[in-house]
Amino acid sequence: MKNIAILGYGTVGSGVYKIINDNNSHISRRAGEDVKVKYVLDLRDFPGDPVEEVLVHDIDTIIEDKDVDIVVEVMGGVEPAYTFVKRALLAGKSACTSNKELVAKHGAELLQIAADNKVNFFFEASVGGGIPIIRPLIECLTVDHLEEIQGIMNGTTNYILTKMEDEGADFDTVLKDAQDLGYAERNPEADIEGYDACRKIAILSSLAYEKQVDFEDIYTEGITKITTADFDYMKKIGASIKLLGMARKEGSVVYSMVAPFVIYSDNPLYNVKDVFNAILLRGDMLGDVMFYGKGAGSLPTASAVVSDIVDAVKRQGETADILWSDTKRQLGSVDAFKTPYFVRIKGADAKDKVKEAFGDVQFIDSDLDETAFITGVMTGSDFKAASAGLEVVSRIRVSA
What we know:
ten-stranded mixed sheet, six-stranded parallel sheet, 20 strands
């Protein structure tokens, strides 16, 4: 018998509790041992809920119980999650989490503590929710050098951009719709400004390139400046706009950023719509492989957490080899990152100025008093220099 303690009985925690109870025989068979929830930790009470039978309010009850084998942290935030997980690992208990903030900030440290104590720290649900991406990255794609990661990693922003594209609705209207449907929080800043995706690409970059990538170092740009006019241009060139978390390795330099990108129909991410997420990995041997599904929600995310529980039970007495050094990786400057740009310039008669500044470009017909075009591949610094004398309405990077 392996006893589980769940820290937090919110959206994901209640999902984990439900899956373990409802699918217990199947999970236990896959794990090779019976799996049981012994405790659920939460500050609240839940009158009439079956969880009352295992509900506790003191973390010490869990840490000090030697019969607890695995702690599942689904509280969110850095504290007290970090302190609780660290204590669990030091006490010889494996830990599983869906907490992207925790993993992005303390992942390397917690992995080392787990190794020192011959237990495991797993975090499959921290990036793709219900989409398996961590385990394939560290176990299945071991022969490839990952040249690039591109991901639609936030369902809220993808829903907003999809509605703007398909229905011609403006940003504010679609955001309110997303809030009414429960896809966006009352304070949607973490989603629409790209901070949520930033934590996720920090985790993937750290794992892919085996050194700590601090999310604070990742250039992050949200979707608040995207307009319906941008999508009108996209329809003329057979493209779309997606908020991407991306990482790219060029030689010894790793670039990582979160920003809106123009993507064409030959990119597998082009058809990812609504609240769905997808992560595209580009290996030097395998080529492109994409992982697609629901990136959030109670049961999809909880499903990934429970898969980590099963793995932790099967690996008792051994620690999975996850290469993530706490040595900090210095990222390449966003000004040195090379990509084409989609640009809108004030004035319908600016083509000559554009050619003089940017050389050969792809012009896009405009119904507005402006000149729109796609540049060639250029660095961020070169774009700033070329556009300095022009009245730029907007610019969006283009996925090469």
